[in-house]
Design goal:
This protein has helices spanning 3-30, 36-63, 98-116, 126-149, 154-158, 166-184, 199-218, 226-254, 259-273, 282-306, 314-332, 335-338, 349-379, 386-391, 393-398. By secondary structure, the chain is an all-alpha fold. Helix 1 runs parallel beside helix 3, helix 7 (199-218) packs parallel to helix 9 and helix 8 (226-254) packs antiparallel against helix 9. The longest helix is centred in the last third of the chain and has 31 residues, at 349-379.
Length: 405
């Protein structure tokens, strides 16, 4: 065990946890005043729910020794955190306690379903949210995490690169959000312009996400190394570049410099650099940030034109950003940083491998999420009654209001 590596991963785990309240504020500011608490609640309760799932069975399904050697799902070895000890396990991380590795991965598992909640904000039953989170974390997140990150996972064995969650976290949540939005249907507008009710709250949330993302990406080195330092640098570089490129795209379209657009652009850049952060240079991060800004902005415009009510543009930001980032990793990976070369260094096959990983994640997440939301709708009903939606979920569901006046 290395005390420096262990200390860094303890900090990184806490940094990723901070992303949950960051996401709560980011989403909470974007919705209408009457739904801010209900939106924040999804992140708060999501962390609590997944924390229990992860200990009982989630970690075992995601990272347990492979069942039947197929690379599809983990076995029962770690159920209830049995055999998750205080010493390192070289199958997962050679210099930190296994229990710390499992705790670090818990925070990834917690934020992923929370990202999806932005798609059905302001209209989903709380009980439906709880059951959806349990089922989705078990049926969708755990298998994909096993495919990509666990020893013996079939995408990992194939050589797919995902340093910190482009496929596991962002593509899976973005695609699932789009499916959920299509199934649950559009919100009742009642003449509202559906504009953010508290932009400073959203900016605060974006800042906390940016801060926590250093743990998300640099922590994925699982050690205090040069690769971790590079991951921190390229994370910041891509986020800054995407902030500017997203705002520029919006300015060319609407002739306004949007502060909300800056926040969304920053998150899009953070998403896109996530799979690449352990493999690309600062120059590669500049390219990724410059492209993902207008790409995500265009996806938002297309969503509006198609009248799909992905309320907080989860697919445009996380789905599109994650897919682009995963493919860009195959192009821009530099062998001197992460040990694997991309197309820029002549390894064209890496792009094909990344495309397989993207296609597999999109297909599985879309189909599984569709089945889950249809089952939840059949058993509980997805939406609150129209009268509750009109009143706002803060008062009608939680019996509370965010503001006294």
């Amino acid at each position: 065990m290395n005390s420096g590596d262990t200390a860094w991963l303890l900090v990184a785990t806490a940094l990723v946890m901070v992303m949950l309240p960051g996401l709560a504020f980011f989403y909470g500011g974007l919705v209408r005043r009457k739904n801010v608490l209900s939106t924040i609640a999804h992140s708060v309760f999501g962390l609590a729910i997944v924390s229990i799932i992860w200990v009982l069975w989630g970690f075992s399904l995601a990272f347990g020794p492979d069942v039947n050697g197929l690379g599809l799902i983990g076995g029962p070895d770690f159920l209830g955190f049995s055999n998750v000890g205080l010493e390192p396990d070289p199958r997962y991380a050679a210099t930190i306690p296994l229990v710390l590795f499992a705790s670090f991965q818990l925070m990834f598992a917690a934020i992923t379903p929370a990202l999806i909640t932005g798609a059905f904000a302001e209209r989903k039953r709380f009980a439906a949210f709880v059951i959806f989170t349990i089922l989705w974390s078990t049926i969708v997140y755990a298998p994909i995490a096993h495919w990509v990150w666990a020893p013996g996972g079939w995408l990992r064995t194939m050589g797919a690169l995902d340093y910190a969650g482009g496929t596991v976290v962002h593509i899976s949540s973005g695609v699932s959000a789009l499916v959920a939005a299509l199934v649950i249907g559009r919100r009742q507008t009642n003449g509202d312009r559906m504009e953010p009710h508290d932009v400073p709250l959203t900016i605060l949330g974006a800042g906390l996400l940016w801060f926590g993302w250093f743990g998300f990406n640099a922590g994925s080195a699982l050690a205090a190394t040069g690769q971790a330092a590079n991951a921190l640098l390229v994370t910041n570089t891509a986020a800054g570049t995407a902030t500017l490129s997203f705002v520029l795209a919006g300015y060319l379209h609407r002739r306004k410099v949007s502060v909300v657009g800056a926040a969304i652009g920053a998150v899009a850049g953070l998403v896109a650099i996530t799979p690449a952060s352990g493999f690309v240079t600062a120059g590669g991060a500049l390219v990724i940030g410059a492209i993902v800004g207008p790409l995500s902005y265009s996806a938002m415009l297309l969503r509006e034109r198609l009248q799909i009510d992905d309320a907080l543009d989860v697919f445009a930001c996380h789905g599109v950003g994650g897919m682009f980032g995963a493919i860009a990793t195959g192009v821009l990976a530099v062998g001197a940083i992460g040990g694997v070369s991309g197309a820029i260094e002549g390894n064209l096959g890496q792009v094909g491998t990344q495309l397989v990983a993207v296609a597999a994640t999109v297909s599985f997440a879309a189909v599984a999420t569709f089945v889950i939301v249809k089952v939840v709708d059949l058993v509980l009903g997805l939406r609150v009654p129209a009268s509750q939606e009109e009143m706002g979920l803060d008062l009608s569901v939680h019996g509370e209001t965010a503001y006294s006046a």
